[in-house]
Automatic annotation (TrEMBL):
Name of encoding gene: lipA
Lineage: Bacteria, Pseudomonadati, Pseudomonadota, Betaproteobacteria, Burkholderiales
InterPro entries, per the entry: Capsule_polysaccharide_synth (IPR007833)
Name the UniProt record assigns to this protein: Capsule polysaccharide modification protein LipA
GO biological process: polysaccharide biosynthetic process; polysaccharide transport
Pfam families: Capsule_synth
Length: 697
C-alpha cells in the first residue's frame, strides 16, 4: 500500500496512470492522514520536499519506508494549476527531488552515469523535442502570449536600448520559493546576481518579475532593484521572449534551462538541476556530486523524458513526450487564437455550448447576438471578431461586414470527424472548423484549408505531421470512422457482396441539390440527376451503385432522381446503410463534392470528381471539372490528411473540457462515447422524434 497524506495529490486526475510503476511495486493508494494499518504501508508519496510534505517525509523516515517525491512536470498545462488545470506531466523521484541540491536526486544519479543510457536514438529524440518546443513556444505553463517582433520593438524603446546594445535578463523569483532555499540561493546571492549583471559591458539589464509577484499574490525574491533598471511585469511565453537576450542571470529558475535550449549564456547563482554539469556559468555553490559532463541533450532527456511522465487526459494512458508536445501545442494554438473578444451571431440556444467550448481560452470573451446586423454593428463598435455559421455568411453579409469595418469575420462549420450520430439529432460535435478566409466547400473563395494544404509540404514540423497522419489513417480505416459514425447495416453489406465480379463497381454518393457545397462547388452539374447521367456517359460498361442522401430519401431535402433516370443510369440503388458499408465493395467513387470522396481517398479508392471539392486538384483524384485556379502543389495522401484532419479543424473533448487532437477524438468514438447532453437538448430530441413520427404518418 502507498500512503498519501496530501489532499492536493488526491485531486490529480489519472494518478494511477502516472504512478503505475509504483502501484506495481508497492500496491494501491491509501489516502489518509491517520496511522491505521500502518504495517501494510510499503511506501509514502508526497508533494516534493516542500513544507507541505513534511508529515509524509517524517512518517516515511520513522517507518523506514521509501519516500517518492511527486512534482509538476516541466510541460504541465496551458492554464495554471491554481486555476484548476490538470497536469499533463508529473516528475516522479524515489531518491530526492530535482530542485533540492542539499541531497542526491534521481536526476543527479542519471546524469552522473549518462553515458550508460544515452543512446543515439534518445539523443535524436531529445534534439527533436527541443526543436519542437521552440517551434510551438511551449513551457511549463502556456497561458501567456508569444513575444512578437512588435513586443521587442516596444521593449527596446522602453529601456532605451541601442541597436548595438546587449540585452541581459535577470530572472526574479518568489520570496521563500523552495527551489531557492533548497538550491542554496540566499538574499546575498540574489543581490550579487543583479550586481554582476549590471557590470556587463555595453548592456541593458532587464529584471523579469515572477507572474505571481506581478499579480500581487507573492513578493519578489530580489530585495532591491536600483533606480533606472527596467522591471518587466508583463508575461510572455518564455522561449519566444528569451530569444532577444544575449545572456540570462538566474538563481534557480526553469527559465535558465529554457535559455539553454536557445543556446544562450546562462549564469546561475544557486544550484538548479541544470547547473554544475558544464553547461552554465556557475557563481553559486554546486554539489560536488555533480561530477559528470553530460551533453545538453542528455540533461534534457533525463529531466523531460525520464524524470517526467506524461498521461493523455482523454485516453487516460501514458504517452511519450512527442505526443505530449502534439497535445500541448494544439491546446496552446487554440488558446492563442481565442485570445480575443468574439461576437457570435445567430446561434440557436442548443448550439451555444458548442460555441462556448470551441471559442474558449484563458483570455477569451464571447457575446451572443441573434440578429446579423446587430451583431456586425456590435463587433465593429467593440473591435471584436464576428463569428457566424458558414451558411449564414453570405456575400451580402461579407459586404456589410466590410462596410462596417469589422476587424475579422470567422465562418464556423462542422468538422470532418464530428460525432457519433447526426448533428441534426442535436449531438454535440467533437470537431468544428473556424475559417477566417472562406470555407472549405466554397472553391470561389480561397479558404484557410486551401492555404494550409498548399503549405503542408513546407510545414516546419512536416515529419511529425506525416507520422501522425499515418497513424490517423490507420485508425480511420481500422475502425471505419467517418464524419457521423452511424451504425453499420449488415443487410446493406451483404447486398454489396453480390455485386458482379467482372465489372468495374462505381459508387455515386448522392447529395442535397440545394446544399451549399453543390451550389458553390458543383460547377456545370447542379443535381444528382445530372451527376448520374454524366457518370453513365463516361462509364457505359461500369456497374453503377447510387446511394441517395438520407435527407433526400426522407423527403426533407430536394435531390430526388426520377425513376426513369435511375433505371437508365444506375445498376443498383441503395437507400439503407452508410457509405462505409459500401466502400469496401467498390472500385471507384464518382462524386460531385461529397465528403465521401475524401473518405474514399483515405481508404485507397480511385476517386473521380465532377465538381470542385476541397480534396480535388492535389494530384490524388481524377478531376473532370478541374480547379478554377491551379493549386500548384501535389500532395501525398498523408499530407492531405494532415492538413485536412490535423491542422485545419479544432477538436474538443467534452468529458475533460479541453482541446485535444483528432487521434483523441477517434479514441472516444471507437468506444462509442458521445458527450452527455443537458435537459434542453433531450427535450429538443423528443420534439424532433414527434415531428418525424407525424411526417411518417
Amino acid at each position: 500500500m502507498i500512503r498519501i497524506f496530501s489532499n492536493g495529490i488526491r485531486k490529480i486526475d489519472n494518478l494511477t496512470a502516472f504512478l503505475s510503476e509504483e502501484i506495481d511495486a508497492y500496491g494501491s493508494f491509501a489516502f489518509s492522514s491517520g496511522s491505521s494499518d500502518s504495517d501494510s504501508v510499503r511506501a509514502v508519496l508526497g508533494w516534493g520536499h516542500k513544507a507541505t510534505a513534511e508529515k509524509a517525509r517524517r512518517f516515511a523516515a520513522e517507518k523506514g519506508l521509501p519516500y517518492v517525491a511527486v512534482e509538476d512536470g516541466f510541460l504541465r498545462s496551458v492554464a495554471l494549476g491554481v486555476e484548476g488545470a490538470q497536469p499533463l506531466s508529473l516528475s516522479v523521484d524515489p531518491v530526492g527531488v530535482y530542485y533540492d541540491a542539499t541531497q542526491p536526486s534521481q536526476l543527479e544519479e542519471w546524469l552522473n552515469d549518462w553515458e550508460s543510457w544515452m543512446t543515439p536514438e534518445l539523443e535524436h529524440r531529445a534534439r527533436e523535442a527541443v526543436r519542437r518546443l521552440r517551434l510551438y513556444d511551449l513551457s511549463k505553463y502556456n497561458n501567456a502570449p508569444s513575444f512578437t517582433t512588435d513586443d521587442e520593438v516596444r521593449l527596446r524603446n522602453a529601456v532605451g536600448a541601442r541597436p548595438e546594445s546587449r540585452l541581459i535578463l535577470v530572472v526574479d523569483q518568489t520570496a521563500g520559493d523552495a527551489s531557492l532555499t533548497l538550491g542554496g540561493a540566499d538574499d546575498e546571492a540574489l543581490s550579487r546576481m543583479l550586481a554582476d549583471a549590471l557590470k556587463e559591458p555595453n548592456a541593458v539589464v532587464i529584471v523579469k518579475t515572477h507572474p505571481d509577484v506581478a499579480a500581487g499574490k507573492k513578493k519578489g525574491a530580489l530585495k532591491h532593484v536600483p533606480e533606472g533598471v527596467h522591471v518587466l511585469t508583463e508575461s510572455f511565453a518564455p522561449l519566444s521572449f528569451l530569444k532577444i537576450f544575449d545572456a540570462v542571470y538566474t538563481a534557480t529558475s526553469q527559465l535558465g534551462f529554457e535559455a539553454l535550449m536557445l543556446g544562450k549564456t546562462v549564469h546561475t547563482y544557486g544550484a538548479p538541476f541544470y547547473a554544475g554539469w558544464g553547461l552554465t556559468v556557475d557563481h553559486g555553490t554546486v554539489p560536488e556530486r555533480r561530477r559528470a559532463r553530460p551533453s545538453f541533450e542528455a540533461v534534457f532527456a533525463a529531466a523531460y523524458m525520464r524524470l517526467c511522465r506524461y498521461v493523455n487526459p482523454v485516453t487516460q494512458t501514458r504517452m511519450e513526450i512527442e505526443e505530449a508536445i502534439d497535445l500541448l501545442a494544439e491546446q496552446r494554438r487554440q488558446n492563442e487564437r481565442n485570445r480575443k473578444h468574439y461576437v457570435a451571431i445567430g446561434f440557436r440556444y442548443w448550439k451555444k455550448p458548442h460555441v462556448r467550448a470551441f471559442l474558449s481560452g484563458t483570455a477569451s470573451r464571447i457575446d451572443f447576438v441573434w440578429g446579423v446586423e446587430e451583431g456586425l454593428q456590435k463587433a465593429a463598435a467593440s473591435g471584436a471578431d464576428a463569428v457566424l455559421w458558414s451558411s449564414k455568411c453570405t456575400d451580402e453579409v461579407l459586404e456589410r461586414a466590410r462596410a462596417l469595418n469589422v476587424v475579422r469575420l470567422w465562418r464556423m462549420e462542422d468538422g470532418f470527424i464530428r460525432s457519433v450520430g447526426l448533428g441534426s439529432d442535436f449531438n454535440h460535435p467533437y470537431s468544428l472548423v473556424l475559417d477566417e478566409s472562406g470555407i472549405y466547400y466554397d472553391p470561389k473563395r480561397e479558404s484557410d484549408l486551401t492555404k494550409i494544404l498548399r503549405s503542408v509540404p513546407m510545414h516546419p514540423d512536416r515529419e511529425r505531421l506525416i507520422e501522425r497522419s499515418r497513424v490517423l489513417i490507420e485508425l480511420i480505416r481500422k475502425h471505419n470512422l467517418t464524419k457521423y459514425n452511424m451504425p453499420s447495416d449488415p443487410a446493406t453489406a451483404a447486398l454489396c457482396r453480390t455485386f458482379p465480379k467482372d465489372k468495374r463497381i462505381i459508387l455515386v454518393p448522392g447529395q442535397v441539390d440545394d446544399d451549399a457545397s453543390v451550389k458553390r462547388g458543383g460547377g456545370r452539374i447542379q443535381s444528382n440527376r445530372e451527376l448520374l447521367e454524366a457518370v453513365r456517359t463516361r462509364n457505359p460498361e461500369g456497374f453503377i451503385v447510387f446511394k441517395p442522401h438520407p435527407d433526400v430519401t426522407s423527403g426533407n431535402r430536394i435531390g430526388r432522381v426520377p425513376e426513369d433516370v435511375l433505371a437508365r443510369c444506375a445498376d443498383r440503388v441503395l437507400e439503407e446503410g452508410s457509405i462505409i458499408d459500401i466502400l469496401p465493395h467498390v472500385d471507384e467513387v464518382h462524386t460531385l463534392t461529397s465528403l465521401s470522396g475524401f473518405e474514399a481517398l483515405i481508404r485507397g479508392k480511385r476517386v473521380v470528381t465532377y465538381g470542385k471539392p476541397f480534396y480535388a486538384g492535389w494530384g490524388l483524384s481524377v478531376d473532370e471539372a478541374g480547379p478554377d485556379v491551379p493549386k500548384g502543389v501535389t500532395l501525398s495522401k498523408e499530407e492531405l490528411v494532415g492538413g485536412t484532419l490535423i491542422l485545419y479543424p479544432s477538436y474538443w473533448d467534452w468529458k475533460t473540457g479541453i482541446f485535444c487532437r483528432p487521434e483523441d477524438v477517434c479514441a472516444r468514438i471507437v468506444k462509442g462515447e458521445q458527450p452527455e447532453v443537458g435537459p434542453w437538448i433531450r427535450f429538443c430530441r423528443v420534439i424532433l422524434w414527434i415531428y418525424r413520427k407525424l411526417l411518417a404518418n
